[in-house]
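To illustrate the input format used throughout this study, we show a single complete record. The first block contains the structure-token representation of the backbone; no residue identities are included at this stage. The design step must infer an amino acid for every position from geometry alone.
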């Protein structure tokens, strides 16, 4: 896997101060995507074990609320193994910090589509606190949405969704 950027002390992609990891590669190619350079699977820097260690190190301070993984597309089958390992390591080291993930796929596609699913798909979804899901749709763009770019996208509380077995939207506490 490659990544385009790692933003430390990020305040734009989830609540509080977070580490945000932008993985490379996306085949969804939404019209109006704000960073088409990340569609290339080789964009940026190669992701290594050292990269993961640096990310985990950045999460240590108490004031860092958690990790956000976005892209590109974290659920591209090529990316899922490393994304899973990063999230699993984060949850193991910091069980009280939250993990957010942005994907262009919908929850339904991730549970059902053969094109996306790998042995890691469910494992990733089982660890997420929040998933922002759905394609970016230019005709539905709305700059006033909380953590979404277009009105079709949803911010899903994955813990409550797993418990209630139906999609539950995330709300600020
Ligand atoms: S899913 Fe995200 S990265 Fe991929 S094309 Fe759509 S907006 Fe761009």
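Output of the design step:
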């Amino acid at each position: 896997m490659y990544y385009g950027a790692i933003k430390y002390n990020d305040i734009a992609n989830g609540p509080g101060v977070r580490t945000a990891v932008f993985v490379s590669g996306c085949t969804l190619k939404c019209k109006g995507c704000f960073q088409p350079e990340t569609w290339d699977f080789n964009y940026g820097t190669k992701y290594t074990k050292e990269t993961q260690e640096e990310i985990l190190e950045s999460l240590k301070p108490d004031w860092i609320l958690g990790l956000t993984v976005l892209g590109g597309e974290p659920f591209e089958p090529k990316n899922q193994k490393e994304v899973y390992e990063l999230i699993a390591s984060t949850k193991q080291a910091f069980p009280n910090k939250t993990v957010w993930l942005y994907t262009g796929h919908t929850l339904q596609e991730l549970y059902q589509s053969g094109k996306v699913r790998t042995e890691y798909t469910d494992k990733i979804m089982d660890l997420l606190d929040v998933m922002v899901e759905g394609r970016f749709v230019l005709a539905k763009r709305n700059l006033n949405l909380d953590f979404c770019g277009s009105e079709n996208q949803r911010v899903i509380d994955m813990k409550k969704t797993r418990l209630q077995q139906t999609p539950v939207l995330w709300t600020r506490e």
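Structural context for interpreting the output: DSSP finds five helices and seven strands in the chain. The beta strands are 2-10, 17-23, 45-46, 64-70, 98-103, 130-133, 154-157.
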